[in-house]
Each structure stands twice: as C-alpha cells, then as structure tokens.
Amino acid sequence: MDDLWTRTHQVSEAALASGALQPIATESLAVEEAGIPFTLRILTSLAAKPHARERLSRADRRQANPFLPPDPALRVAEAPPAHRLVLNKFCVIRDHLLLVTRDFEPQQQALTDGDCAALARCLAAGPALGFYNSGPDAGASQPHKHLQLLPLGDAMALPFDPLLTRAAMAGMPQAPELPFRHRLVALPEGLLSEPSQAATWLHRRYREELAALDLTVSDDGRVLAPYNLLVTARWLLLVPRRCERAAGIPINAPGFAGALLVKSRSEAEILINQGLMISLASVVSEGS
Ligand code: AMP
Q1: Rounded to whole angstroms, how far apart are CA atoms 243 and 226?
Q2: pLDDT band for position 36 (50/70/90)?
Q3: pLDDT at residue 63 greater than cutoff 90
Q4: Fewer CB within 10 Å: C terminus or N terminus of the chain?
Q5: Which atom in ligand 1 lies closest to the alpha carbon of residue 253?
C-alpha cells in the first residue's frame, strides 16, 4: 500500500483520458468568520455547469449500486481481505478514493475492526483525510458501505486542522472553537506505522467516542443515529448529526473540518449570510 497515492494518480490519469472519470470543476472561496478559516468549493459557472449539475444529481441517485461491481477503469487496488479502493467517479478533488466493502454492507452498519484496519493502511500511505458519512442524514448518497479518502496537500487543505490538532494534542475532547457537539481524540505519535496496533486503536476509540455521544449500536450492528467520522494522522473527530441540510444545502463530513461544497454562488451566499459556523451547528444533534 506504500505506493497507494502514486497508483491512484496513475489510474486517475487513465480514467480521465478514457472518460471513465468525470471530475466536477469548482472554484475555491476562502472565508474567515470570527477568525476561523473556511473554504467553500463552488461549482464553476462555466458552460460545463449544466453537465456538472447533472453529474452531481446522477451521483445522488440511490437505486443502482455503483460499487458492486465497480467500473474496472475506476478500480485502484484490492485491500484484502474485505475491501477495495475505487476512484470517486464524480470527484471534486482529484484522486478522491472510496474504500468500499467487496460484499454489500449497509452504510449505517458500525465500522468493524476490518474497516479500521483497511483505513489505517490507507492513512499510513501518505497525508490524507479519511471520512465516513453514516447514512443519508449525514450526507451519504450511496447505501453500500464506503469510507472515503482525500489526499491532503495544496489542492486540499483542512481549514480547521490547526485548531483540531491544537486541541487534540492538548488532550481536549472538544475543540473550544467549535460550538457544536463533537468528540476529538489525538492519534498517538507513530501509530500509523504499526498497522495492527493502529487498527485496534482506531476501532476502540471509534466505539468509545460513539458511546460518549450516545450513538447506540443495535444488536445487529447498526448505529441507530447518523454521524460523521473524520480521521487524519493526527486526530479523530466524531460529529453526531441531526439532519442532512443547512438552509437546504447538504453538508457532509469534510464540512466539519471547514471544507464545504456548494452548487452555486447563491448557495455560498446563503451559508455565509446565515453564518458558516451556525450552519454547521444547525445540522448537528444536540443530544437528548
Ligand atoms: P457519498 O455521496 O458521500 O455517499 O459518497 C459516494 C460517492 O460515490 C459520491 O461522491 C459519488 O460521486 C460517488 N459515486 C457515485 N457513483 C459512482 C461510481 N459509479 N463510481 C465511483 N464513484 C461513484
């Protein structure tokens, strides 16, 4: 898995050339609100926009399963025993990977030891955000279990990373700047270079933080309420969800690291006028 991102890039180039990959062009808007940075990615207003919108809504359709089997042109690698890595066909960030189970499992099923082992191996391959949208109310458009990976670098930075890292490294279970319910944990230094320890640690902390947020796992292994999970080499963040949309605009996991995606300038304005942090807080469950 060491060469994961090189291989991803190669498959991505080939899939772009063949038309199998259909990236969605965006422009980035940096916004600071009360000293906190955000990035809004906005679909570009070029002639391609109607196609991009159509592609986004196609990506949203829930009936066919695009991962069973995946398009061979989008397949990056097998992640034995139970997973494979597939390019996100309608990517906004290049080299956006989906870590999908080989056999169907529902997206609301709790992450297993095996899911955490596969995620840990991917995170060990280079700087990336691993994330999970558990169910439609947490922003998932596909019901087949899929974690996601975005390579971090110039094209994709996480505006909240410094504040999350600061709080996590100080051993704080919440970042004081984030006024919504969440749990934050620092990954032990060097954890990802020990794959089996990393898998066990990630799975244990994930289950502990689910419990801390009263996110109950049913007897058949489903997490009964929606949530987002975000993991980097330095921290793990869990956010319980109340609903999918803020002012009609869907928010998914990267939003809680300050990276929001909207379909138009007018959607960006709606969120900015309402307040970006207020928008995030409005889709988070306050608990009982
Ligand atoms: P989510 O919407 O967070 O559940 O993530 C699922 C992702 O799968 C979406 O971002 C879609 O763009 C992507 N997707 C939809 N259809 C396909 C496909 N045929 N192959 C690969 N990725 C797809």
Answers
A1: 8
A2: very high
A3: no
A4: C
A5: 3
Q: Is the pLDDT of residue 235 over 90?
A: yes
126 and 151 Cβ atoms separated by less than 8 Å = yes
Mean pLDDT taken over the chain:
94
Distance from chain centroid for Cα 193 = 22
Q: Is the pLDDT of residue 61 over 60?
A: no
Closest CA to 85 of 61, 109, 65, 67: 67
Q: How far apart are CA 225 and CA 240, in angstroms?
A: 8
**SS3 assignment, position 182:** coil
Report how far apart, in Å, the C-alpha atoms of 185 and of each of 115, 160, 236, 272, 274 are. 19, 14, 5, 29, 29
Question: In which band, very low, low, confident or very high, does the pLDDT at 62 lie, cut at 50, 70 and 90?
Answer: very low
How remote is the CA of residue 73 from the centroid of ligand 1, in Å? 14
Q: Which two tokens stand for residue 99?
A: 């870590």
- Max Cα distance, the chain (Å): 51
- pLDDT at position 7 over 90: yes
- The amino acid sitting at 159 is P
Structural element, H or E, at residue 260: strand 259-262
Query: Does the pLDDT at position 104 exceed 60?
Result: yes
Ligand 1 pocket mutation pick from 57, 108, 142 by most atoms within 8 angstroms of CB: 142
Q: Is the pTM of this model over 0.70?
A: yes
Ligand 1: which residues within 6 Å by Cβ? 59, 66, 70-71, 74, 86, 88-90, 98, 133, 139-142, 146, 252
For residue 275, what are its two tokens?
């307040």
Task: Please give the Cα distance from 170 to 273 (Å, whole number).
Answer: 33
In this structure, the residue with its CA closest to atom 3 of ligand 1 is 140
Ligand 1 centroid distance, CA of 33 (Å): 31
How many angstroms does the Cα of residue 166 sit away from the middle of ligand 1?
32
